[in-house]
Specification:
Helices cover about 40% and strands about 15% of the residues. The chain is of the alpha/beta class and about 150 residues long. It has one domain: Rossmann fold (3-Layer(aba) Sandwich), CATH 3.40.50.
Length: about 150
């Protein structure tokens, strides 16, 4: 089974419990991936779940959008980003402008590695990569319902 099949699953109809909502608020995805195809896989999962996605590969580009666009419901960001800015720093800066912004972090690094780099988010906000579409849908739904970030 290929990595793409494992992560996204076969292209079949989604069950209604996986589709997030019929009128979604935009999700901003910021992911430093050496592999463009993996980054696009994550965006594809979000879109197949019914989300509107703005996708960036670095924090600096995302900062511009966060300061200029009115509607972004969730920031889904890799913990470690290029350009010296971490996902934690991006989230902190974004919340200065958007205090109600919900944030989910993702990382393929083990928790110990993130702690050593000083970049470990609250465990409740971290989605460990690789993840499946159902896991992603559940975490986004949880963030929307609980209103926590």
């Amino acid at each position: 089974m290929s990595q793409q099949t494992e992560l996204a699953g076969p292209r079949t109809e989604l069950s209604p419990d996986l589709i997030l909502e019929s009128n979604p608020q935009p999700i901003l995805s910021v992911d430093l991936q050496d592999d463009f195809e993996v980054r696009q896989l994550i965006v594809g999962m979000l879109e197949r779940l019914g989300s509107v996605v703005d996708d960036f590969s670095d924090g600096e580009s995302a900062q511009f959008l966060l300061s200029s666009r009115e509607r972004i419901e969730i920031l889904l960001t890799d913990v470690l980003l290029s350009g010296g800015l971490t996902g934690l720093e991006l989230a902190g800066q974004a919340r200065q402008v958007r205090p109600d912004l919900k944030v989910l972090f993702m990382s393929g690094y083990a928790a110990e590695v993130l702690e050593n780099k000083g970049a470990h988010p609250n465990r409740g906000q971290l989605i460990q990569e690789p993840f499946q579409r159902g896991t992603l849908a559940g975490r986004i739904r949880q963030a929307r319902i609980s209103g926590s970030s």
